[in-house]
Amino acid sequence: MSSIQINNVTKRFGDFTAVEDLSLDIQEGEFVALLGPSGCGKTTTMNMIAGLEDISEGSILFDGQDLSSTRIQDRNIGFVFQNYAIFTHLSVYKNLSYGLEVKKIDKSAIDSRVRAMADRMSITHRLDQKASSLSVNEMQKLAIGRSAIVEPRIFLLDEPLSNLDASFRAYMRTELKVLQHELGQTMIYVTHDQIEAMSLADKIAIIDEGKLMQYGSPLDIYNSPNNRFVAHFIGSPRMNLIDGELRQEADQLKLIISGGAEIALQGQIKSDFTSDGRVHSGSFGIRPQDIYFGDKRSSSDIEMKGTVDVLERVGPKRIAHLQVSETSFIAFDDQDQLKLGDEVPFYLASDKSMAFDVASGRRLGVI
Amino acid sequence: MNSLELKNVFKTYPEFTLGPINLEIKQGEFFGIFGPPSTGKTSILKLILGLIHPDEGHVIINDQDAKDLGVSERGMSMVFQNLALFPHMSGRENIIFPLKERGATDREMEQQLNLVSDVLHISHILHKNPAQMSGGERQRIALGRAFAADSRAMLLDEPIAALDARLREEMRVELKRLQRENNQTFVYVSHDEEEVMAVSDRLAVVIGGKIAQVGVPDDVYSRPNSIAVAEVIGSPPMNLFQGEFSKKGNFFEAENFDARLALKGQSKHKGSATLGIRPEDIWLVEDGEETDFELSIISVEPLGGYTILNAYLGEKIVKIRAPGQVNVMAGSKQKVSFDPRRIHLFDDDGERL
Amino acid sequence: MTDTIKQPENSPANLKKQGYWAGVARDGQKMGFWFILPTLLLLLFIVVFPLFMQLYLSVTWWTPLEGIPWYRAWEVFSWGDNYVYQFTDERVRGAIWRTILIMIVAVPAQFFLGLSLAYLFMDNFPGRKFFYSLMLTPMMIVPAVVGLMFYLLFQGTGPVNAHLGLPSTFSWLTDVNRAMISIIIADVWQWTPLMFLILLAGMLGVPTDQLLAARLLGGSNWQNFLKIILPRMKAVIMIALVLRAVECFKIFDLIYIMTKGGPGVQTETISVFLYKMTFGEFEWSYVAALGLTILFVLSVIAAKGLAYIAKKDV
């Protein structure tokens, strides 16, 4: 079980920089998610940790040790591929025993360990069958078991749940979390699904276009995103991010949004936006649960008017998409009262709002 | 007016039998079909399109039996699960292909192309070949091709499954807008329950080759008519407990835990049954208040806007959805309570409430 | 065949009216038959007819020297006499033995050589494309030319002896044992590339991520080769071996040019023997019988090999 330090790692493929100056400190036994959209460099980063890719600049240390000169087969790193890469020509038993066989461990020891792992992953009944005959869900368990059985120093998982159907995915999430605790493994998990990352990880590293956007615990990132990308990416449903031009009119600061509508800024959010004089284009961030209907609750809350454009049922809640000229706000229809086409007033809780600079993406006003 | 109808349709496969399928899809409706994988959802689409023919029953399109209608005469577009893009054509050529086949003018093709590329954000990849595109880009081109054809009805088979989670959430709203603006009939198949519930005007839940329930999402969610439906609708899915009713019918004793639930004289049923309660209908109880149920928390999933707790009640795993952020540690004990009016009761396969 | 003149139900013109998919769904099978028909007719003429002719001749005593045209060969019926004689013919026995000997040595040699080379070519290296083309050249050369090449190389006064420092009296092609060796060397040289080609294709068909997974689990190159690559190549290996074994059995050009089967009949393989019988002694009915026997034996071997491949699904 290792700690990992990623120090200023950069990876270039010719002219293209896939990962730029990435630094992460991962503690022993931590479950860290590398989260980001497709092509952001998260898989490349993981490949560099595994040794499947060379590092262009920087270093990766395992418990302080640099393994870049060690051959891949000697690194003892567990890796679960996105498509599992099960040895389809071998039986389930042989798949599990492979890592032990190549270490020349004696047969009886192998047998007891294989059976224990099969039991743990609930695939004992499949042990003698050909691995190719397994269902996708069982293959996933086999892939994890096969890597876990050799007790690697760290565990790398490349979007392991993306091939599973939605209901099994939820089940495997719980399983994985429990498994990680039991094994006490340091786990690094690549995904593009922020719900997965939030529910599983101790810490999340959000990556966009090869750069680290933010690294912290799920709730820290959710409550205090330090840039616009993170704010937009984390949270279900996603945060509303309304971009516009800041305009000062007398003593009023307004955000002019697409289509000409105005958001009159007041209170904390106003001072956030004015904290940096160079900022002219701002992004107003507010989570759907902080938009409400009915009566105004606080004098600093901002009043808007919009038309109900789309209604979605997501789980137990109804989400309303409110069209304000050319922009859309998403909010919860808690009272289940709205109908398509309704023109309704709504309020933005100003103390829960966040300000971002559009140009740099930086969060404004937070010290 | 019914745009599409399936009357008593059966189709036999080696692994299972699909049917009886009875569906009525209205013109301009966004109709979802949801179910676990490999249970016949795609086959229903193929039957509607005409790629396969029912062994029994009728497919009726605009009040006309479709038996004699060839696939290209039914006025439908389909987005396939494996996309089926023409590999030798660019994105642009793929999209305008159906229009070309129908003899549209250059101007009409440009117009449709622009309309479609704007909505789907694919203008920058139109010149590429499918082999040069990412999975998500290919999926959007396939959608573009189906939309450009501007058919009366669109059949979509997991059309956004290959996209990133975030992009999927945005795309489904776009699809809904597009559908409404063009007033087309959409038949949308997906195994992602949240997706189907979010977009559909009405949906059908297909389990084991049969239709388990049809209705508007609100109804299917709040009144699932069988355990099978209750198990698949809702993330996390409904908590289900098997047990028995007491003789007088106002207490329910579950196998997995020792507590008894006072039902306040609701049920007239006797004997064994299954009780269901949704994770959001269980709430955490402050210290000091009395309640019958104490759970040991296995894990906590903080999702920001809400939190999912996995806990043991006796030996059974219970999932709870708590609003906002909670201060609960894994391994601790928590008291919970629930509203007896929000329970769902099922006999050996149906509901009564 | 008036059917083919009238537009069949599934002609392109008719299909367009019904809609392409409808046509395929209903008549997929029939259309396939029409596509195969020309090739079927060709096969009939080129293969099946001569086969029956051969069968006919093999049960007679007929030779072109008899003076009667071949279709009247029934006048010299011999029933199974030709077939019986095969088994007691010393020369046939010897030829078959020598053929098998060459096959048993040459084919495995080509196989292991081809396998090792293919393994080297699995990963990319600078100049790979160039060396790949180079590797394939020997099998592109006409076998007769290869025969001539090695004939010249193995002359007493030739380059081989010169490089090995052997006197020009050290003969390769006229000594019984050494002639066999030189023939085997020539065959291995010419046909290893084919093994290489087939086996490399098989190797590249092994999914890379499974190989990576094996490596990450701690497997060394050798272990992964034995446990992952080879097992997945079983079908391809069988194809390569059956293909080459059957072809090697029929080896002719190399031998005829290098030694003409000599000294005497010491390097005479079955094909060389048949050739001499046909054009030297005109024993055509005997050759017909022998030919069919060999066809039968080789077909059995090939069928067994194919059955094995058909069962293999990885």
Largest interface: A-B, 40 and 43 residues
Oligomer: heterotrimer
**Count of runs of 4 or more consecutive helical residues of chain C:** 14
Count of beta strands of chain C: 0
Tell me the number of strands of chain B.
21
Major sheet size, sense and barrel closure of chain B: 6 strands, mixed
Unreliable spans of chain B: none
* Residues in helices of chain B, as a percent range: 10-25%
Give the N-terminus to C-terminus distance of chain B in angstroms: 33 Å
Unreliable spans of chain C are 1-23
What can you tell me about this protein's structure?
The complex is a heterotrimer of chains A (367), B (353) and C (314). Chain A has 367 residues and is an alpha+beta fold. Chain A contains nine helices and 21 strands. Chain A has a six-stranded mixed β-sheet, with helices on both faces. Chain A has a six-stranded antiparallel β-sheet with strand order 13-12-11-14-20-21. Chain A has a five-stranded antiparallel β-sheet with strand order 15-19-16-17-18, with no helix packed on it. In chain A, helix 2 (92-101) crosses helix 3 (107-120) and helix 2 packs parallel to helix 4 (136-148). By secondary structure, chain B is an alpha+beta fold. Chain B is 24% helix and 34% strand. Chain B is built from eight helices and 21 strands. In chain B, helix 3 (106-120) packs across helix 4 (135-148). Chain B is globular. The mean pLDDT of chain B is 82. Chain C has 314 residues and is an all-alpha fold. Chain C has 14 helices and no strands. Chain C is globular, with a radius of gyration of 26 Å. The two termini of chain C are 45 Å apart. Chain A binds chain B through residues 37-39, 165-167, 170, 173-174, 177-178, 192-195, 198-200, 218-219, 222-223, 233-238, 287-289, 309-310, 312-316, 319, 321, and chain B through 36-37, 134-136, 164-167, 169, 172-173, 176-177, 191-194, 197-199, 217-218, 221, 232, 234-237, 278, 280, 298-299, 301-305, 308, 310, 317, 321, 325.
